[in-house]
Amino acid sequence: MAGHLGGAGSRAGRRGDQSLALTVHGPLGSIDLLVPAGAVATDVAREYAAQAGLPAIPLIYTELGEPLAADELLVDHGVDSGDLLVASTTVHRPPRDSSVRTTRRGPGGSLTSRAEAGPISVLVLSLAAAVAVLAGWFAARSASDRLHDVAVDVLLVGAFLGVLPIGAYRHVRALAAPAFAGAAAFALLAETDPEKLPLVLGITGLAAAVAAAVARALDAGTDAAARVWMATGGGLFVLTSLATLADLPPRVTWSLLLVLAMLAARVVPGLAVDVPDSFLIDMDRLAITAWSARERPRSRRGRVVVPEAAVVAVAARGSAIITASAAAVLAVSAVASPLLLEAADLPIDRVGARVLVLLCGAGLLLSARSYRHTAARQLLRMAGLFSWVALARAVVPVLTDGQWLGVAVAAVALAVLLVLVAVATGRGWRSAWWSRRAEVAEGVVGSFAIAAVVVAAGFFRILWESTS
């Protein structure tokens, strides 16, 4: 459905003739509206109610759930073309701000303060985990035994302090502890030989999984993301151990890890949100209930369907799993891509490895477009770009002058196309046709990436040599 909002009130003339292309999602579906720049939230609500046939004017919210004041200009609230607004007929309940310091009454009746972890603390601890990984790498390559021992001791102490369920930021700190434990294990092994590196990384993943299991046992608040640590580290150890027992070359391990990371980006969203059956099916009446239902006062018609706290808990758990999984995909892709390109030393294997890295990077970028979660989407885009950067680093030194010219022309044409698409998207352009083509391309890229494993791992070359 689409509509044009003509009479937008007396403020419509203040902002000129510019219009905003908005999508309003409400209880009766989504409606596309072309709104004057001077419109207010009430104008949008009236138009939606008129087109959707609502008996009353709904309340208008942003896509993040922030209410828009009735007399507030949309542009003053940061609303732009292409944005999504939500129309709701329920009363707004302001959520509790978890990013500020709140108070609670302790057992003795005194008030104790509690601060939840915000984005700054998450950023700081993420940087600490990255520094721990670098410390483990340099400690493993250090020629000084004293510096090596000091680095290992510091990493072990950091892992121990991270799993302790103490402090306001214990949940975030516990999720950084596995990185310290894995870095300490890598430094203790002190083995960077390419042939032994897969097993070393597998043991590193096992150490990180053990630290995550300890953190999960001590603090239930880290359950969702700790499960991702455990699954990733345990899976890495199993894969590398089996490859070592089967005496497979390292390129087989890196190829499988890269493809599994690409597939995980598509599989995880379907497993992240686990809604209890009691919220979806009314066992008393055997009727499917709406997930969007909220807790309401008791009446003659029956009991509460879905408590609001349960909705928040399921959404928060799913968000944590998706974010942690995207970070795991980024880590695996950033490690496996350059190692695969380096391990493929024969001509046929090298071609297969480059094709595999190219396709896996494209698959991750295409998978990211379907994510509504901002952090996970950015992490998956970084994973795809990391793969392409590793490929460019391996391909650039062998390009000829003619190939360089072709790359330059293609880059300029792609840049012009991206500018045109960005301008059209900023003006509210949406294309279901291109969206469907992107989904088809994602499936095709994934299929070819799985097929490229046969070439990148060396199986195709072995079959060719055995039959020739």
Question: What can be said about this structure in brief?
Answer:
By secondary structure, the chain is an alpha/beta fold. It contains 14 helices and nine strands.
The computed structural class is alpha/beta
Kindly estimate the percentage of residues that lie in beta strands according to DSSP.
Answer: 5-15%
The count of DSSP E runs of length 2 or more, i.e. the number of strands, is: 9
> What coarse outline follows from CA principal-axis ratios?
globular
Helix content: 55-70%
Mean pLDDT: 80
Radius of gyration: 27 Å
- Major beta sheet, specifics? 5 strands, mixed
Compressed to H and E, one letter per element, the order equals: EEEHEEEEHHHHHHHEEHHHHHH
Distance from first to last alpha carbon? 63 Å
Number of helices: 14
Order of strands across the widest beta sheet?
Answer: 1-3-2-5-4
Uncertain parts: 6-16, 96-116, 285-295, 297-304
What would your notes on this structure say?
- With 468 residues, the protein is an alpha/beta fold.
- Among the domains are: 2-88, Phosphatidylinositol 3-kinase Catalytic Subunit, Chain A, domain 1 (Ubiquitin-like (UB roll)), CATH 3.10.20; 118-247, no CATH class.
- Helix content is 61%, strand content 9%.
- The protein has helices spanning 41-52, 119-141, 145-163, 170-189, 197-218, 223-245, 250-272, 277-280, 308-343, 347-368, 374-395, 401-426, 432-456, 459-467, and strands spanning 2-4, 19-26, 29-36, 59-62, 84-88, 101-105, 111-115, 281-282, 287-288.
- The strands form three sheets. Strands 1-3-2-5-4 form a five-stranded mixed sheet, covered by helices on one side. A two-stranded antiparallel sheet has the order 6-7. Strands 8-9 form a two-stranded antiparallel ribbon.
- It is globular, with a radius of gyration of 27 Å.
